[in-house]
């Protein structure tokens, strides 16, 4: 039996003892003590039962979120449009269930900052989902056709995949908040700066990974240095031919 239910059962027994003792002697000190302990135990036990039930509901929603994260882990292994169709078919009901449960949860919350955090997370997931599917399609097209942009398409797909995973992780964090300890951090006159700081922190790791790619460095070098000089050289060569003619 869960501790909360045991506490309620124990408090009920105290109340029964109090009824018997006070029935025999209305001035019984032990009877009054049992009455107070039983009443307090009923209130505390009922609250504990409600909290335990609420936490169990949160765990269920977190499991829905984790199931979506597990499905997102399959994205990197999709190599054909048939696999993509199967992925979308399996993802759609899981994603819809997660969004529905999180949306209902945020409507029940009394701490506004927690509700807003979940609401923002849902909005971001809804926004990123079609973009992620499109990026997978683009990756498959460029890969199967052997186009030179296949590597960039893969980076684009991975970027939105990481963004989606981060948003779901943030939803999980918001679901597990149980107090208003973070209200000062979420709200206040510096909330915009803190939000920007968090956004920069999330995007910085993507930028670092992008810059660490040697193919990216070569591309940046070409478009930044080589290409302008080649263009100028070609223009000068054309002018030289004109002058010679």
TrEMBL record:
Gene Ontology cellular component list: actin cytoskeleton; adherens junction; plasma membrane
For this UniProt record, the keywords arranged alphabetically read as follows: Actin-binding, Cell adhesion, Cell junction, Cell membrane, Cytoplasm, Cytoskeleton, Membrane, Repeat
Instruction: Kindly report the protein's main subcellular placement as a broad class.
Output: other
UniProt topology in membrane: Peripheral membrane protein
Per its UniProt record, what PROSITE patterns does this chain match? Answer: VINCULIN_1
Gene3D superfamilies in alphabetical order: Alpha-catenin/vinculin-like (1.20.120.230)
Xref: InterPro entries: Alpha-catenin/vinculin-like_sf, Vinculin, Vinculin/catenin, Vinculin_CS
State any GO BP term from the record.
cell adhesion
Listed GO MF terms: actin filament binding; structural molecule activity
Pfam families, alphabetized: Vinculin
Q: Where in the cell is it found?
A: Cell junction, Adherens junction; Cell membrane; Cytoplasm, Cytoskeleton
Superkingdom per UniProt: Eukaryota
Q: Which family does it belong to?
A: Belongs to the vinculin/alpha-catenin family.
- Please report the name of this protein according to its UniProt entry: Vinculin
| The species this protein was found in | Dibothriocephalus latus
- Could you read off the lineage of the organism from its UniProt record? Eukaryota, Metazoa, Spiralia, Lophotrochozoa, Platyhelminthes
């Amino acid at each position: 039996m869960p501790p909360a239910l045991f506490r309620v059962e124990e408090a009920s027994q105290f109340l029964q003892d109090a009824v018997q003792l006070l029935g025999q002697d209305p001035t019984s000190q032990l009877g009054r003590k049992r009455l107070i302990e039983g009443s307090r135990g009923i209130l505390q036990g009922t609250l504990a039962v409600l909290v335990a039930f609420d936490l169990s509901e949160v765990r269920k929603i977190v499991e829905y979120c984790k199931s979506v994260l597990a499905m997102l882990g399959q994205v990197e292994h999709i190599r054909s449009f048939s696999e993509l169709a199967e992925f979308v078919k399996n993802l759609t009901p899981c994603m819809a269930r997660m969004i529905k449960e999180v949306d209902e949860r945020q409507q029940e919350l009394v701490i506004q900052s927690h509700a807003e955090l979940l609401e923002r997370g849902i909005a971001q997931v809804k926004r990123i989902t079609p973009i992620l599917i499109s990026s997978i399609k683009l990756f498959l097209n460029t890969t199967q056709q052997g186009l030179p942009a296949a590597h960039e398409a893969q980076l684009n797909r991975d970027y939105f995949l990481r963004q989606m995973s981060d948003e779901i992780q943030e939803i999980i964090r918001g679901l597990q908040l149980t107090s208003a300890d973070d209200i000062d951090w979420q709200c206040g006159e510096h909330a915009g700066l803190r939000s920007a700081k968090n956004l920069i922190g999330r995007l910085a790791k993507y930028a670092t990974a992008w810059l660490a790619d040697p193919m990216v460095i070569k591309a940046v070098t070409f478009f930044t240095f080589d290409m302008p000089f080649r263009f100028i050289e070609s223009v000068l060569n054309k002018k030289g031919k004109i002058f010679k003619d």
